[in-house]
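Subject: design request, 159 residues
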């Protein structure tokens, strides 16, 4: 996984200019370089100021903030572990990534739709698609963590 991350950083640096050693280190320490997420990053963040995965997830789900709360409960805003591997569920190892998408139920559909659940972008994009079709039902098992947020903020909880 680290090789993939390094390759991605090299590719991006060739497209957008070099990344400093500090930028590479920040990216491997649960940071997202805004330059890597140029189209998704908040406009107020400068290119030399890395944002955290939490900030990135919250910005990505700004139209559906309940999904950010679900990410907080499911993975504490993590896509990768300290070794650079995609995180897996503690109870069910088929649950992967920031949104803990279950590969047994969703991998085939995600692949058909062009989403790579092993990337933060693919994991979140598929979660958004899943939320549009099924609401919060796929994350019901963690609802004791995020349901109060949903009720307080007027988000519908279904399933």
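Subject: RE: design request

Done. Sequence follows.
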């Amino acid at each position: 996984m680290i090789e993939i991350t390094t390759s991605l950083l090299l590719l991006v640096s060739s497209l957008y200019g070099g990344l400093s050693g500090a930028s590479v280190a920040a990216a491997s320490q649960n940071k997202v370089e805004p330059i890597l997420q140029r189209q998704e990053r908040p406009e107020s963040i400068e290119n030399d100021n890395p944002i955290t995965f939490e900030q990135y997830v919250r910005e990505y789900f700004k139209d559906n903030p309940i999904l950010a709360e679900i990410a907080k409960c499911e993975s504490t805003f993590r896509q990768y572990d300290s070794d650079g591997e995609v995180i897996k569920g503690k109870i069910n190892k088929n649950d992967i990534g920031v949104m803990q998408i279950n590969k047994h139920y969703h991998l085939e559909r995600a692949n058909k739709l062009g989403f790579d659940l092993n990337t933060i972008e693919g994991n979140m994009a598929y979660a958004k698609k899943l939320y549009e079709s099924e609401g919060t039902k796929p994350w019901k098992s963690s609802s004791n963590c995020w349901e109060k947020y949903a009720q307080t903020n007027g988000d519908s909880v279904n399933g």
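Residues 2-16 form the longest helix (15 residues).
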